[in-house]
Amino acid sequence: MCHVLVTGATGFIGSHLVEALLRQGHEVYCLVRDKTRLRWLNGLPVKVIEGDCKEVSSLKLPQVEVIYHLAGRVKAKRPVTFYQVNFYGTINLLKAIVRQRLRLKKFIFVSTLAVHGLSDVRIIRADDPPFPQTHYAKSKYLAERSVMAYKDVFPVVILRPTAIYGPRDREFLGYLQCIKHGFAPVLNPEGILSFCYVKDLVGFLLAALEKEVPSGRVFLISDGQAYTWKEAVSVIAKQMQKRPLLLKPPKYLISFLAFITEGLSLFLEQPLIFSRDKLKEIFQKSWFCDISETCSLLGYTPRYDLKKGMQETIHWYKKEGWL
User: Fold this and answer.
1) Average pLDDT of the residues in 109-116
2) What is the DSSP letter of 124?
């Protein structure tokens, strides 16, 4: 049993991780910005610590042995927010660990496969040089470099997952709602996609805690499968018992719609993820990554392909009235 701190614990991935850690008998602390908005943590036997990674003075960390750093922004109204939260927020957390002299056994940072932007290779590997293209990816890569600077101070592990989906996720929900209404935008017909069900990501995260690996090791995370847009839509639509019309809009129209979405985001409480910056990731040739080394070193193999993962996800969405 370990004393574990999770940042981003109220979010989609973080809440699933917290539940898994509790099932394994760990004592779990959750760093949250607002104790009144616990979302999926309500009723769980966790210790809530109030603090904001953007404000280093607010970080009063408990004496834990392991930290999972998941807190971050995947969408923002303005690019600067990505750097304030993902990059400087990570620096502040690392400074707080050192200042408070925590004796960490492991610091596990969840980054993103998007740091491998503009890849012309069909298969992405962990030793490929990062080339982030979006503000989100750049902010996460800068955070990675900050984490790496501490690899001789305490053991650090970095995970770069691909697109994560599953119960509680609202980003993927919008695409499923399109399919429900009879149409499916295929934004990059030639592109190769990869996915990872949230339970498999949690499996990798738990393995990263349990397995002894060299400090500073980077692991790529996916379900190990490659899908074309058409194949992915076909799998999802079949689970929904739908036969949607495939829409293949030209790039100029997609860019125009992304521009309109950016404008709308400025007036909404929560920004929309679709933007011209995000199109750099959408139009990439391939997001398929080699996870053989990840599986070998962490001792975990994905248990969900897109079909099985979508079955559970769609069932949950319907049960909760989201779809």
Assistant:
1) 97
2) B
